[in-house]
Design a protein that fits this description.
6 helices; about 45% helix; five-stranded mixed sheet; alpha/beta; about 160 residues
């Protein structure tokens, strides 16, 4: 094989490898659909079951704008929902502050607080158990949700 043919062959092989890597990256990182996210309450009492989305798992995200961990978790949940648009909906409940009726109604004592309903509208988990359920249901896609809520190790601050 001549030197010129070898150079062309190596260049084509290099381009094919780069194209394959870019394609794999795009498949893994590109959003797969429009996230089904809606705010359903701003402090007032709310019936979660009435807002569970038929045919989809529904995560109810109790949050407040003043809550730093909530500001990390919110985008991670939205990304999970966009990657699983046909299977997952996020419904956000702004507690506003601890004196509002919705915080008392659901016994919310720390934020963020999650509640998970299945596709049939039945409550599956609440609190910390929701993270385990999301990992079981959505695998690797749910890793960012876990990372977004990890507490720092003792003495790290």
């Amino acid at each position: 094989m001549s030197q010129g043919a070898r150079t062309v062959l190596l260049a084509c092989a290099g381009l094919a490898i780069v194209a394959a890597l870019l394609g794999a990256y795009a498949l893994h990182h590109a959003p797969r659909g429009e996230a089904d996210v809606a705010i359903i309450a701003h402090g007032e009492r709310v019936d979660l079951r009435a807002h569970a989305v038929p045919g989809k798992y529904t995560v109810f995200d109790f949050y407040a704008v003043w809550c730093p961990p909530c500001r990390v978790l919110g985008p991670a949940l939205e990304k999970l929902a966009s990657r699983n648009a046909g299977k997952l909906a996020i419904r956000k409940v702004d507690i506003v502050d601890w004196t509002m009726p919705v915080a008392e109604q659901y016994g919310v004592q720390e934020l963020p607080y999650l509640v998970l309903y299945d596709a049939g509208g039945r409550k599956l988990a609440d609190g910390e158990k929701v993270y385990d359920s999301l990992n079981e249901l959505f695998g690797r896609d749910a890793l960012e949700v876990d990372r977004g809520t990890e507490k720092p190790p003792a003495g790290a601050m």
